[in-house]
Amino acid sequence: MKRILILLALIFAGMALASVPAQAGPPTPIGIAEAKTAAKKYVHDFCRESNCRGSRIKDCVSKTAYRVDCEGLYGKGRKDICTFKISVQAIKDRQIRFNIFNVRCENG
């Protein structure tokens, strides 16, 4: 009888712990190489969807331990090239946020 009560107590304790919402962990610092690789993958996927011919990520600079800014370009043809800046930011639970800004296109 005691074993059944102990087993039931453990089951209820496990259910109580499982019902507590998970807490998000702090952001993990991101390095320049990791941010550059993630930005390349993100821009490559973007180009695949928007019919680009190619893309490049270059000149990455670490702004903080959690943010890296890179310069990039993509093109749809020989004379249609766009330059932009992409910010890779580490957020909670090892997730990454991308912000693209300063887009300038040269239509030749």
How many beta-strand segments?
Answer: 4
Overall tally of structural domains: 1
Give the low-pLDDT segments.
16-20
Q: What fraction, in percent, of the residue positions are helical?
A: 25-40%
How many separate helices?
Answer: 2
Rg from Cα: 23 Å
Strand content: 35-45%
CATH architecture: Roll
Class inferred from helices and paired strands: alpha+beta
What sort of overall outline do the alpha carbons produce when their principal axes are compared? elongated
Question: What is the string of SSEs from the N terminus onward?
Answer: HHEEEE
Major sheet: 4 strands, antiparallel
- Give average pLDDT, whole number: 80
At the fold tier of CATH, the topology name is Nuclear Transport Factor 2, Chain: A
Tell me the span between the first and last alpha carbons.
Answer: 85 Å
**CATH C-level class:** Alpha Beta
Strand order of the largest sheet: 1-2-3-4
Structural write-up:
It is a single chain. This protein is an alpha+beta fold and 108 residues long. It has one domain: Nuclear Transport Factor 2, Chain: A (Roll). The chain has 2 helices and 4 strands; from the N terminus they run ααββββ. It has helices spanning 2-19, 32-50, and strands at residues 54-64, 67-75, 80-91, 95-107. It has a 4-stranded antiparallel sheet, with helices on one face. The longest helix has 19 residues, at 32-50. The chain starts with a helix and ends with a strand. Mean pLDDT is 80; it is low at 16-20.
